[in-house]
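Structure request: Extracellular solute-binding protein, Hymenobacter aerilatus.
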Amino acid sequence: MTPEQPVFRIAVRKFGPFESAMQKLWDGYCQHSGCQLAVEMVPMDLHPLHQSLLTNEGLLRGAWDVAHINTDWLLEAHTAGALENLTPYLQADPPAGFPKGWSSSLLGMQQYGDAVVGLPFHDGPECLIFRKDLFDSPVEQENFQRQHGRPLEPPTTWAELQTVAQFFHRPAENLYGLVAAGYPDGHNTVFDFCLQLWTRGGQLLDEQGRVVIDSEAAREGLSYYRQLLQDQAAIHPQSMQYESVQAGQAFARGEAALMINWFGFAAVCDVDEACPVRSKVDITSIPRGEGLQGRSASLNVYWLYAIGAGSKHKDVAYDFMRYATRPENDKLLTLEGGIGCRISTWHDAEINALVPYYHKLEMLHQQAESLPQKANWAQIATIIDEVVLQAINSDTPTAELLAAGQRNINLLDHVFCSTMFKINDIEVPYLPVLPEKPLPIVIIGAGGIVHDAHLPAYRKAGFEVVGITNRTRARAEKLAAEWGIPHVYDSVAEAVAHAPADAVYDITIMPEQFVATLEQLPDGCGVLIQKPMGDYFWQTQEILEVCRRKKLAAAINCQLRFAPYVSAAREMIRQGLIGELYDMEVRVTLETPWELFPHVMVHPRLEIQYHSIHYIDLLRSFLGEPSSVMAKTLRHPAKALSSSRSTILFDYGDTMHAVINTNHDHSFGPENQESFIKWEGTKGAIKARMGLLMNYPHGVPDKFEYCLMREGETPTWHTVELEGSWFPDAFMGTMGSLMRYKQGEIDVLPTSVEDVIKTMAVVEAAYASSDAGKASPPGPRRNA
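Returned structure:
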């Protein structure tokens, strides 16, 4: 019985030129090397290819020796350990001319630290492909000039694109204006969405690296895109059934005047001698949006050869890849209809004679954007794909679709590994979990904190703000216009009368107005109240009593508890990573611009009541209730402020040291300013810099560090780059937890009025101690 011959398996992106080129490359390689392995090449469309390589772990488990993989999937594959690190192979026996033989734009996305996980296979950014024979036709030029009063030229704006597409749309002649790739494969519509966003001056990532699709540029772009694809007087009727390859084939058959697609689908028309539109094609930049923000943009997604981590033929796989990427074989791929990646191919005389616009690749690369390198990009792309498809196939308003999509992306981010880090394989999550179904928000008040923190947080979380009211209507109207809030109300009563039944209320006014405002809210509703919970403890008691009487699900916005660095520290301590906590310190030494808070700076209880209260609440959330408090709060001799420096010492027994030191008067430059929280335990320590407070309101970057003790080793501090910051991310936590509590997702409301009254009791004790020495917190007033 003869043993079964081993098979070398290659996963191929399904596309005729790729398939023919790969077969020629393998045949040439076997002749060159003497390889006797049988080969099995399996062409697959995008979804089946991703599923086989990554979802079903084919690369990891040895089902594939070599695979075509695109840059969208690289981080996901690398994170899963599915790709062989090519660095040792490249160092021992690099491909000819590596790395200088390729543009740097085709080498960066596959590199992770010192690891290289792929070699370029096929390139070609997106571009506008058009029938130059139609645009050059004197008859077409004359007719267009007569109809539109301007010359017929390749469109440079999206409005021009639709006009030109409508002009060339002639179903009776089997000629359509524009063929699109609308098939829901998680790629084509996503790429189109990104192009619509970028060409209108938008960005896909915010400053924290989070994917943002709910923006003005996105709303404009998706609104245009949905009506374009629904325009039966401009679009090829099979567009929603075509993915990019099929759309390219339709264009090659002469069925469309225009197409936005990969450069390769233009080039294949000129290398295929049987193509009906050979020598009739040209390319140019993708149209831009209108206005000053509009700019042309392209998309740089490329395909690579990669070796599966589970392959049993890794040496053969790398040797084949070296052969396949030779200059003559890169050119072979191009002549078959793919797009070679070597600089030598781009400048090859034979190629440029065959494809006259090949030199424009350099221009497209200069305009090209890249998709985010996120391990969960495939899931995010699916969400964007669904949003775009709903836009095309439903009447749901664009803004509503994008807001819902943003919520789904945020939920995905908050359960995915990008919201945690690992210490010795121990996961440390730190971003707040958002509600499965967010509730509508009505904001009461329109101060600076609403603009700077509340609204950015709610937009980032995908929460819908349905209305706002303020004592000065003009301020509310200004915020509503800037943030897209649909309703501005003249009073709390009017806001309540028009609010959805399940609305939650966000009270951001001054404490003396809390009780009167709470009285007007519906019984049993959810409400988030700005801290502090009253200016004096008797006000705190009144606020608690009205919340109890009206059975409100009431929380105080003690948002520092949810800052990413606080949540990370809390989780590390919960898991015992630093042992028994015995020291907690908050130190703030900086210059605070109190003039930014005119209603606050005149308060007779300034520093502890309006600043150190954050840290008092924070210490309580970690350590519980102190048995007593010693404090001193002081004013500056040259400032008209009631207080601007405080020291507060908490009594938690004879082993726990807990202290707050604040100095808002350090006006001697940034060199010795500091703002941090420090936790020390029997096995390690954590330190978090609160960057927001330094150079406020601009801030400096946060910094999260930890040191874990190991026997026989010198203590070493490690820094972790966390996503998000106090503003605005922590505000997502307070509002998100209120929504989750209202809907029964959690049983305990973290910053409830029942809990935060204890924070206010400690604040009261601190003032009593500052006035007269050591004092104990008063107990809450009992209901009769």
